[in-house]
Amino acid sequence: MFQGETAITIDDKGRLAIPTAHREVVARDCGNRLVVTYNPFEHGCLWLFPQAEWEAVRDQVMRLPSVKATHRNMQLKLVGAATPIEPDGNGRVLLPASHRNAAGIEKKAVLLGMGNKFELWSEQAHLAQIRRTIGEDEISDDMLELRL
């Protein structure tokens, strides 16, 4: 559904404009409703899910037994922090200050379309990820099947 990389500016009120290429899809296919939450795997990144996609993820995460600390940690970061957001008439969404601060997202950010969701990265964290190469010892069996 979503793909591509866009440099984004967060305004002084904490709003970002959904790129024009994605606005129609967000309005039509997502009912103009997104959910923002933390990326539990990488610092410097927030996840923005379409509402319906989010509900499926939320339900899976909440089925994990909470007796394991790792499960509770994931539930806290994903479900506990989940906040609904809706684009305004100009296609802007207001990101909660707590989310921006925790992820270190300031004025300059990068929005990535990652299929079923968006990833919003701080500019510095995104650069660090892009500059990091995948080493030969990190290649999984599944990756060996790819024909790139």
Describe this structure in words.
The chain is α+β, with helices and mostly antiparallel strands and 148 residues long. It has one domain (2-144): 3-Layer(aba) Sandwich (Chemotaxis protein chec), CATH 3.40.1550. It is built from six helices and eight strands; from the N terminus they run E-E-H-E-E-H-H-E-E-H-E-E-H-H. The chain has helices at residues 20-29, 51-62, 69-80, 97-103, 123-131, 141-144, and strands at residues 2-9, 15-17, 34-38, 45-50, 83-85, 92-94, 108-115, 118-122. A six-stranded antiparallel beta sheet has the order 1-7-8-4-3-5. Strands 2-6 form a two-stranded antiparallel sheet. The chain is globular, with a radius of gyration of 16 Å. The model has no long low-confidence stretch (mean pLDDT 95). It comes from Coralloluteibacterium stylophorae. InterPro entries: MraZ (IPR003444), MraZ_C (IPR035644), MraZ_dom (IPR020603), MraZ_N (IPR035642), MraZ_sf (IPR038619), SpoVT-AbrB_dom (IPR007159), SpoVT-AbrB_sf (IPR037914).
